[in-house]
């Protein structure tokens, strides 16, 4: 059965999702797009043969989608996820799914009550290198992870809403959450969070009050540690992200989601190199479609969006209050 897909939010990330839907032609089809301005939305939707809407409720009622992809900025959520769930529509929601835990929990609860497939858009988790590590971890070949380090460095002004912490949550919440999510998957929920953050490089940019440098330490009661850092003043045009997982029997050194060296550290080191061109947006949609067909949970459920949000919000609070926060 070909899934009817609707898209809410026609910005840059929405375009990536629309292109991914097109790549899965035959399995799914983009039938509707909804944006704030009808004329712009019509221009966005036309290449995909989709119908344009400026009214979400009208799109939900008239387009009759099976799956709704929500690619809104975090501040713009106004109950659309919950409404889609109540209508029996499956959802894929971009991260961060909200800017506060109450709203995020409401989305998760609405999806659970409606028994729809509800996924969170942590697309890093669908990379070839990330998937290989997860496969080895499930098989018990990595041993227990004891140290995670990760970073994300960029240099861009982004959209105006992104610069305003009240709308984006700041770089910790809107960007570094991807790396935090990977740390949570490898290590679990931490016991404590300590962070420092500042706006050092953009104080003269109007409305830019988000941090552009930050560092976070996640602490675990058994002594394990995760160290994360980010900036938005590094090399222009380059999105530098990477992470390393040190486990009992293996170390993973990730250049990105598709490229890594996995080194077995028990006995003589054995290196497995992974380097693939693997579209994580296409893979993510494939998993969601399979979850719908097979009546199962997706690989990255919406609840993961809530759990990782809890950590980055604690980090932001820690930076504001300059103290360690317990979870």
Provide the domain count: 2
**Structural class by SSE content:** alpha/beta
Widest sheet: strand ordering: 14-13-12-11-7-10-9-8-15
CATH topology of the largest domain: Dihydrodipicolinate Reductase, domain 2
Tell me what portion of residues adopts beta-strand conformation. Answer: 25-35%
- Helical amount: 25-40%
Question: Which geometry do the CA atoms define?
Answer: globular
Number of helical segments with 4 or more residues:
12
The major pleated sheet works out as: 9 strands, mixed
Q: State the CATH class of the largest domain.
A: Alpha Beta
Query: What is the straight-line distance between the termini?
Result: 43 Å
Second-tier CATH architecture of the largest domain: 2-Layer Sandwich
| CATH superfamily grouping of the largest domain | Dihydrodipicolinate Reductase, domain 2
Uncertain runs are none
DSSP, total strands? 15
What is the typical, i.e. mean, pLDDT?
97
Q: List SSEs in N-to-C order.
A: EHEHEHEHEHEHEHHHHEEEEEEEHHE
Rounded to the nearest angstrom, the radius of gyration is: 20 Å
């Amino acid at each position: 059965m070909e899934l009817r897909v609707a898209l809410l939010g026609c910005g840059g990330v929405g375009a990536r999702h629309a292109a991914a839907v097109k790549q899965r032609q035959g399995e799914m089809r983009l039938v509707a797009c909804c944006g704030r301005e009808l004329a712009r939305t019509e221009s966005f939707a036309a290449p995909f043969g989709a119908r344009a809407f400026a009214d979400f409720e009208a799109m939900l009622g008239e387009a009759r989608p099976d799956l709704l992809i929500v690619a809104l900025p975090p501040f713009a959520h106004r109950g659309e996820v919950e409404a889609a769930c109540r209508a029996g529509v499956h959802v894929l929601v971009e991260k961060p799914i909200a800017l506060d835990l109450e709203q995020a929990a409401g989305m998760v609860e609405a999806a659970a009550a409606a028994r729809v497939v509800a996924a969170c858009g942590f697309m890093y988790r669908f990379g070839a290198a990330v998937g290989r590590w997860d496969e080895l971890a499930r098989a018990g070949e990595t041993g227990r992870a004891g140290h995670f380090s990760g970073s994300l460095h960029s240099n861009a002004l982004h959209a105006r809403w992104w610069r305003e912490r009240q709308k984006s949550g700041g770089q910790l919440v809107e960007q570094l959450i991807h790396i935090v999510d990977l740390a949570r998957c490898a290590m679990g929920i931490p016991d404590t969070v300590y962070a420092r953050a500042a706006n050092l490089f953009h104080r003269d940019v109007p409305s830019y009050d988000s941090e552009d440098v930050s560092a976070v330490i996640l602490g675990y009661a058994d002594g394990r540690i995760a160290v994360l850092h980010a900036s938005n003043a590094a090399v222009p045009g380059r999105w530098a992200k990477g992470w390393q997982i040190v486990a009992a029997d293996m170390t993973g050194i990730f250049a990105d989601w598709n490229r890594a060296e996995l080194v077995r550290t028990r006995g003589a080191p054995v290196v497995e190199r992974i380097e693939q061109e693997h579209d994580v947006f296409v893979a993510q949609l494939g998993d969601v479609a399979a979850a719908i067909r097979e009546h199962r949970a997706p690989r990255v459920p919406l609840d993961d969006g809530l759990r990782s949000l809890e950590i980055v919000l604690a980090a932001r609070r820690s930076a504001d209050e300059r103290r360690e926060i317990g979870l």
